[in-house]
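Researcher: I'd like a structural prediction for the single chain below. Treat it as a standalone chain; there are no partners to consider.
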Amino acid sequence: MLKEKAGNVAGQIWNALNETEGMTAKQLKKATKLVDKDLFLGLGWLLREDKVSVEEIESELFIKLI
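Model: Treating it as a single chain, here is the predicted structure.
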């Protein structure tokens, strides 16, 4: 069940990032309307599959598609 949810959330995140040059975690959370735990679950999935890169810029996470 959680594995399926992770895949669905990862799809939401990918779709939100697809038309951008990247977003902060706060912007991505707002765009997807996800709670923190689901956002990070999906990001973990995408990181594992090498679909996104994440950097810390001025104490904020910046996420973009690879």
